[in-house]
Sequence to fold (137 residues):
Amino acid sequence: MLLHRFALSAFSDALALGMCPEKVFSLAHLFDDVDLVVWVDTPVELALCRKDGSISEAEAGGPYFRRESETLDQSFTRYQDRVRQAYLLLRKKSILAKEWLVVDGTKSIEVSAGKITKKITNIDNSIFKSGSNKYGT
Fold:
């Protein structure tokens, strides 16, 4: 099964917006752990450049996060840095994931895709070698 974002995204947003980590972590039992999280870790400044000016308020933390004196770019940078720190914490605490593949977001799409493909191929091969997976098929 392939998921985009998953509960980790909601958890990282909650942490970035200032929710108590213990409260966030206490919700983890409501979700199944995933076998692998692929995280393309991209410096916030590079992500902002790649956005090319098309930032939504949600990507900048929403109306309650943004300070009155901040531009949307400034709020985006501050918020996304907090989201990144939250993902680092979730990874360190092994919340909701058995394994993380961290891909360097400064690399080319081809290099990043190659690393992801190699990892997924290795997982896929190990399933076929064993003849079954955790679902018994």
Remarks:
- The chain has a mean pLDDT of 87.
- The radius of gyration is 17 Å.
- The helical segments are 6-16, 21-26, 44-51, 72-92, 109-130.
- The first strand starts at residue 37 and ends at 41.
